Amino acid sequence: MTDTHHVRGTVWAVFGHRLAIEGADGRTLADLGPKGAEGVSLAVGDRVSVEGEHKPTEIKVTSITVGDGAARAIAWPKPHEHGDADPAAALATVKAEGYAIEGEPTRRPKHFEIMGSKDGSTHELHVTLDGTIRKVKPAKG
Q1: CA distance 30 to 14
Q2: Last residue within a domain, chosen from 33, 49, 73
Q3: Which residues span the domain enclosing 10?
Q4: pTM score over 0.85
């Protein structure tokens, strides 16, 4: 469940795709995200209204209205949205590096964990979804 928060006030600072708003409840940091900030022109002193998911340090804005204009929706990508990543590229990379694969790969949000043995030692390899080995560490006994 998300905690939706509404803030209305005056922009008192702009930091890239984030803006600080002074409103009835004090100052609030609002994050539009790099894609959401595209095409939105904001300056100190602008009146804005934002709505979004309340996080500990800011609001992840899902809708912004500048002045008396129309509300503009801002879509955020889903965390770790990578679809059905195929482990074939990861397995091919591990084999090409000379490892004998032990067991099935484990899917993580941003990588696969693959157990492999080489030169008499077993390792846990972290392989990105595009097939790049990111980390190799000794397997826990």
Answers
A1: 10
A2: 73
A3: 4-73
A4: no
Check whether residue 8 and residue 67 sit in a common domain. Answer: yes
b/e burial code for range 2-30 (CB count within 10 A of at least 16 → b)? eeebebebebeebeebbbbbebeeeebeb
Cα(14)–Cα(51) distance, rounded to whole angstroms?
17
User: Which residue in the block uniquely carries the two structure tokens 């694969």?
Assistant: 101
How many C-beta atoms lie closer than 10 Å to residue 37's C-beta? Answer: 19
Counting the structural domains of the chain, the total is 2
Q: Which string of DSSP letters, residue by residue, matches 38-55?
A: TT----TT-EEEEEEEE-
Report yes or no on 83 lying in a domain: no
At residue 133's C-alpha, the angle toward residues 127 and 139, to 5°, is 75
- Is residue 58 assigned to a domain? yes
The predicted-structure confidence for 39-74, as pLDDT tens digits, reads as follows 888 999 999 999 999 998 999 999 999 988 888 999
